[in-house]
Amino acid sequence: MNQSLPCLPGYNFRDFTKTHFGLPRTLIYSKGVPVPQPIFSATTKRALELLDAQNKVLDTEKAAELTYGPKRSPKREIQLPRHLAMDKKVLRFSGYFREEIFDWSRENYRIRPVKVLYYLQDDTMEVIEPKTANSGLLQGTLFKRHAFPHPNGKGRKYLWKDLNLRKDIMVYGINIRLTDCDQWTREYLIDAGLELNEPEPIPPDPHQQQKLTMGPRKEMRPRSLEDEKLHKFLTNDRKVLRFYGIWQDILSEPPEMRRVILQYYLADDTLEVLEDHARNCGRIPFKVLVRKQKIAVDANELPDSFPKSYLEVKEDDMTWFKPQDLRTGKDVVILGKKIFLYDCDEFTRHYYKAHFGIEDMESIGVAEKPKPAVSR
């Protein structure tokens, strides 16, 4: 039972000898900043003194281990799975194989260069033959990407260790000779510990060498009209003069200016007109305004002596469009559509400069009228 007196007036006794009535500080300054001052009891102070004495006896590393626990082991490097670590890493070899020819006396064999690709991701291979224009051979991907079986082992497949320069690999009965590789493949194989052989050149194809030494053939007879057309087609195939123009569509309501592309094909002297649609213009996505055909300069301009009433107009009686009739800064009429040509591409400029000596095929700036504001 608590025997102390109640805290009431007349029941407590004051120490009349006390002269200092200050309060203890609750804040101390650390680096110029006031921080709370911890108030320890006698037991807590004694425990802190023992802890300081213990830290002085122990070394710093041991004291830190006792205070914060044992050290953590260093983090292990994350090892990616093989299909991610080797993704898009390909060994690229150059080589060739020899194809025997039995049905032609002028050619006994062919040398066909190929590219051999080895994918480190899944140990698959692919053989590709570069395409040659007008070769008459089935070129491209000869063997699709898959694991190539090794001829010396049942169930065994080709690995990257089996590939080396100046070495033959047998792929489904075709003997492919590896002659060279790219720089990344060379560094990878050397780092992997493979002794890489020196590269060797691909032997020349005897038939191609014979064609180079024969020279051009002499013409034994004059060219006919069909030969002239064939020669023109072979010479000018895929050569197109491209002009940019503006066509005023007066039939639309209201009349508007449309940008068009006029293309002249040098192989057969035909023309076509395509609409140059702007993005999100809202028009039907069919750009052909005039299909590819031979177009007369003006079918209505015939001599007065021509009997129009009972004779049809033949091709010999009409003047067809030629490259000389097309120039920038000039109006042309194509099937009743008047088109102003204001620009052309670089190939067209070079063609006119080389064949006609025209150097003033400059671009003409064309400004469009501002569209009327739409009331909302």
Number of helices: 7
The succession of helices and strands, N to C, reads EEHHHEEEEEEHHHEEEEEEH
Q: What's the level 1 CATH class of the domain at 84-212?
A: Mainly Beta
End-to-end Cα distance, whole Å, is 92 Å
| Beta-strand content estimate | 25-35%
- Give the low-pLDDT segments: none
Question: Could you walk me through the main structural features you see in this protein, from its secondary elements to its overall organization?
Answer:
The chain is α+β, with helices and mostly antiparallel strands and 376 residues long. Among the domains are: 84-212, Roll (PH-domain like); 238-300 and 316-356, Roll (PH-domain like), CATH 2.30.29.170. 18% of the residues lie in helices and 27% in strands. The chain has seven helices and 14 strands. The chain has helices spanning 42-57, 60-68, 82-85, 183-191, 206-214, 225-236, 346-355; strands at residues 27-30, 33-36, 90-100, 109-119, 124-129, 140-146, 167-171, 174-181, 240-249, 256-265, 270-275, 288-293, 330-334, 337-344. It has a six-stranded antiparallel β-sheet. A hairpin with a 4-residue loop joins strand 10 (256-265) and strand 11 (270-275). The longest helix is centred in the N-terminal third of the chain and has 16 residues, at 42-57. The radius of gyration is 46 Å and the shape is flat.
